[in-house]
Write a structure and sequence with these properties.
By secondary structure, the chain is mostly beta strands. The protein has strands at about 5, 10-15, 20-25, 30-35, 45-50, 55, 65-70, 75-80, 90-95, 110, 115-120.
């Protein structure tokens, strides 16, 4: 069984930074961060797979966010820089045990954390 527990959310002003972390237990191959703003669909933000050798980002966060995993500590992190009010959302850690072909599609991930809120004020 896979369990995911996020931490690190909070409030920050535009231009600031936050780091999210997700404690991962159980075997996983693909790990991702998703977010969901009020009245919007859940969207993929960043993905890491193949033991951390490969990453993929949504265009909206490319060059601002960095996904990483620490296999020794079993954690997944998301470093978020140059935050914008549009980044305000509940952020979720997600996992799959195998290869995911549509990396940013939430339906391809079986395991989810409970979410952590990120609020960016202008």
């Amino acid at each position: 069984q896979v369990q995911l527990v996020e931490s690190g959310g909070g409030s920050v002003q535009a231009g600031g930074s936050l780091r999210l972390s997700c404690a991962v237990s159980g075997y996983t191959y693909t790990l991702a961060w998703f977010r969901q703003a009020p009245r919007k669909e859940r969207e993929g933000v960043a993905v890491i797979y193949d033991g951390g050798r490969s990453t993929y980002y949504a265009d909206s966060v490319k060059d601002r966010f960095t996904i990483s995993q620490d296999n020794a500590k079993n954690t997944l992190d998301l470093q978020m820089n140059s935050l914008e009010p549009e980044d305000t959302a509940m952020y979720y850690c997600a996992a799959a045990r195998g290869t995911v072909f549509r990396l940013l599609s939430p339906g391809n991930y079986k395991y989810w954390g409970q979410g952590t809120q990120v609020t960016v004020s202008s």
